[in-house]
Structure formats: structure tokens, C-alpha cells
Amino acid sequence: MRLRPIIQHCVVAGLLVLPVPSWAVGLGRLTLQSGLGQALAAEIELTSVQPGELDTLSSRLADQATYSNNKIDYGSALARVRVVLDRREGRPVLKVSSTQPINEPFLDLLIELNWATGRLLREYTFLLDPPGFAATTAVEPTAAIPA
User: Fold this and answer.
1) 10 within a domain of the structure (yes/no)
2) In which domain, by residue range, is 38 found?
3) How many domains does the chain have?
4) Most buried of 100, 104, 108, 135 (most Cβ within 10 A)?
């Protein structure tokens, strides 16, 4: 009896029943375009976006309860921060902005994405430098929060 073909068939059959990884929307770098004492202006890259996901995607700053549940301070400046889906050079990005100046030097943003097949919560912590102090700053996500 030849075992080699049987083993090969078993391996192939086993691979066919494994779950196929599904790539989902991700959040990349936050690029800060404003400074301390200015209205917040930043962009966050959207990564691994699959066709059709943008149709059901919604984005927002997490609510106070979510901040509290994750032991993150909800600063008073966050009440004025908005997150909207936009496009830059044909690629989807999140625009993070405020209508009034931000005077708190450190911000903890907890960004929430929801779409038809998933949910993502991501924390960004960054320092707002005084205007003219530094060039545009890119910030990596601090942590992925289990949804």
C-alpha cells in the first residue's frame, strides 16, 4: 500500500476546510496637521479596504462610556472633535477635526469604525506642539482595543 498519495490527499483536504482569512478595514498612521491652540486637523489612513466595505462604513470618536470601559481619560476637548470619511488622492482616509482650538497638549483619540461585517476600535495618543514648533507629525496607533 502506498501511503504517500493518501497523506497528500489528507493534507489537501485539511487545507480546504481551514477558514480563509478575511482581510478587514484597518487604521494606519495618523498625520497631524495642526498645533496646540489651533483647531485640530489630522488624517488617519484606512488600510486593507475591500470592495463594498466603504458602502457600509461609519466612523466616529468613541463615546464617553467606551473611553471609561477602556480606562482612557475623556478630555473635555474631545467633545468638539469630529471624524468623517473622506478621500485623499483617491484613497479613503478619516479626517479628524475640531471647530474650536485645542488647548490640551496631549490627546487620546479612541476611533471607532463600524461596517456590515465588522467593528474596530483603535487608540491614538499624541502631543500637540505649539504652532511652528515641528513639521507635520505622523503617529502610529497606540493600541488595538478588542471590540
Assistant:
1) no
2) 21-145
3) 1
4) 108
User: Which of 95-111 are b and which e, b meaning 16 or more Cβ less than 10 Å from the residue's Cβ?
Assistant: bbbbeeebeeeebbbbb
Give the Cα separation of 86 and 146 in Å (integer).
25
Local confidence band at 13 (pLDDT 50, 70, 90 cut-offs): very low
Q: Which tens digits make up the pLDDT trace of 57-106?
A: 999 999 999 999 999 999 889 999 999 999 888 889 999 999 999 999 99
Rounded-to-integer distance, Cα 75 and Cα 24, Å: 30
- Residue 65 sits in a domain whose CATH number is 2.60.40
Alpha-carbon torsion 59, 64, 70, 75, what sign? positive
The answer to whether 109 and 141 have CB atoms below 8 angstroms apart is no
* Residues forming beta bridges with residue 61, ordered by sequence position: 111
